[in-house]
Structures are given as structure tokens and as C-alpha cells.
Amino acid sequence: MKSDTPFSFETDAADVGRRFDHVVTLRLGTQSRSRIGALIREGWIRAGGEIRKPGYRLKSGDNIEGRIPPPPPTLLTAEPIPLTILYQDRHIIVIDKPAGLVVHPAPGNLQGTLVNALLHQCPDIEGIGGEGRPGIVHRLDKQTTGVMVVAKNMAAHRFLSRQFKDRRITKHYAALVYGEMSAAAGTIRLPIGRHPVDRKKMSTAGRRGRAAETRWTVRERFRGATLLDLLLKTGRTHQIRVHCAAIHHPVVGDPVYGGRKHHTPSGTVLERCVKAVDRQMLHARQLGFLHPGDETFVTFAAPLPPDMQAVLKCLAEER
Questions:
Q1: Which residues of 182-215 are buried (b: 16+ CB within 10 A; e: fewer)?
Q2: Read out DSSP for 89-110?
Q3: pLDDT string in tens for the chain (319-residue length)
Q4: 235 lies in the same domain as 177
Q5: What is the C-alpha to C-alpha distance for residues 307 and 291, in angstroms, rounded to an integer?
């Protein structure tokens, strides 16, 4: 449905008792649920001629009417920031995110982000998925590298977002961690929430942690470090970094959860090989999902970044 086009429809028996925002989202099929919720709260969409809350449970006879206003002008600017594009079509664009690139703007930081680069690469992406984060359905930390998928239209955004929410996305990471893992594989099941003292950090010790699961497999062993393949079954903030730190094998170079001094004894091979590392050695190496176009399962992979390859080569030469 085009913006600013009035619409109306009658509720049927199947709609009775269902959430107002959910029914409108399904009926229109062109807007995200969060966008519909905002428009309901602002009075653009009404049920039974009244302004309702998004969670209002529809009743028989609650005819729905409204219109979708044009998206507000964005303060974001398109920037010709180079992107490594792994794949793109009219539905999605898949990139290999470099270290140092923030995914979306924040107050005081409206330039130099992945979103700014996307606005230059895909001008039609503006307004998809919410102001400030057009097309974004998931994110990687600023210093984490690897595969990311971005939606190029609203239908694709909704389709991908649902898969992330339902945990149907396969996410494989490569991480170099401190210490020599004794087992060949394992699973970390520890809840993750805000740190009880430092609110900028996440922790497994908080009172309101949410269930989180990380499965790991050893890919290669070195003196003082281990290369892991990690499969995320959930997608909590800083999940891999927090989970690895919790089992006393933090990600090499992690400035927040790493404890570099404790894990790199002076004069060791490990110290020499990681002395130039200035970020966490964490890479989103593979991403699999149902394509929003034909719903076939697709997989995209990105090679390890040069800095991570250099560290692994150094460690391998001294093994």
C-alpha cells in the first residue's frame, strides 16, 4: 500500500480477540508491526472510530480505518563508504562487514555507519524497517567482522525479522579464544542480562538474564589459544563474548570481556602473536536463512579478515 492512501476494512470472526496492531499488520502486509503500533498510538489508524492502544483486543464490529502517512524526512545522509557485497537482488543485500564500521547511527554519531553506506548503495532502502535503521534486521558489534543481511523492501524486512525472532537463522562464528580448550566441543547455557554494576556491559550474573545458548566446536589448537566454531542458538547482546568469558576462555583482543594481561604471559608466543591486536578476534563467518523471495534456504559465507588470518598464521608457525 502506498503512503497516504486511505484504507478501511471490516473485522471478521477470526479477528475478534486478536491484537489491533497484529491484525492491521497482517491485513496491510507492507509495514512492520512496530511501525503500525506507532501509527495506532498517534491516531493514524483507528478501530470502531476510536483511538486505541496497539494491544487493544478487537471486538465484533470494530471496523478499522486509517492511512499510512509518508515517512518523516530522515537526518541521515548517503555516504560513498566502500562495502564488500557478497550478494544482492531486489529483496536483500548481503555484505561482509569490516571491523570498525558501526551498523546504525546513534545520537551524536549520524555519519560513517553501515546505514549511511547502504543509503548510497541502495537509495530505495530509506524508510524500510524504521527511521534510523533502514533495512537493518540484525547487527554485529562495531569491531566484529563478517556476514550481514539487509532487507531492501518492507516485505523482506518482515520476513527476515520473523526468522530471527523465531530462531530459524543459522549463525556460525569463528572466534580465537584465550587458553587451550580440553574438550572437542560443548554447549554454554547461561542466561545473559545487563551487568549488575556496569550497565554498559552484559553479564551472566544479572538477576534478569534471558536464556542464551552457544554451541562450540574446536577447529584448531595453538599454544595458549584455541580457534572455535560457534553456533548461536539465541541472539543476545554480546552473547559469544560474554559466554566465552564466563567459561574463562574470553575472545582474544576483547577490550571489554577479554582480560588480556591475565591471559597473555610475558615472553610467550601468544603475547608476540597478539601484541598488535586491537579488537576482538570474532568473525561472523556464515549466515543461513530462508530467502524472502522464494523461501528457499540460502547460505552466505565470508572469509576470515586479514588481521585474524595474520594472528592464526603467527600462532601456527610457532606451534
A1: eeeeeebebbbbbeeeeeebbbbebeebeebbbe
A2: -SSEEEEEEPTT--SS-BTTB-
A3: 555 678 888 888 888 999 999 899 888 877 778 788 889 999 999 998 899 999 999 998 888 999 888 766 666 788 999 999 999 999 999 999 999 999 887 766 778 899 899 988 888 786 666 656 778 899 999 999 999 999 998 889 989 999 998 999 999 999 999 999 999 999 999 999 988 888 778 999 877 889 999 999 999 999 999 999 999 999 899 999 999 999 999 999 999 998 777 788 888 888 899 988 999 999 999 999 999 999 999 999 999 999 999 999 999 987 7
A4: yes
A5: 31
Q: How far is C-alpha 123 from the chain's CA centre?
A: 21
The reply to whether 141 belongs to the active site is yes
Residue 231 shares a structural domain with residue 266 = yes
CATH value at residue 12 = 3.10.290.10
pTM of the model: 0.79
Domain count, the chain: 3
Residues 295 and 227 in one domain: yes
- 97 shares its domain with 56: no
d(CA 204, CA 212): 9
In a domain, 72, yes or no: no
Q: Which of 141, 278, 294, 307 is catalytic?
A: 141
Determine the length of the chain.
319
Query: Do 155 and 177 belong together in one domain?
Result: no
Let me know if residue 79 belongs to a domain.
no
Q: Please report, as a single letter, which amino acid is at residue 283.
A: H
Please check whether residues 197 and 276 belong to one and the same domain: yes
Residue 203 domain boundaries: 170-317
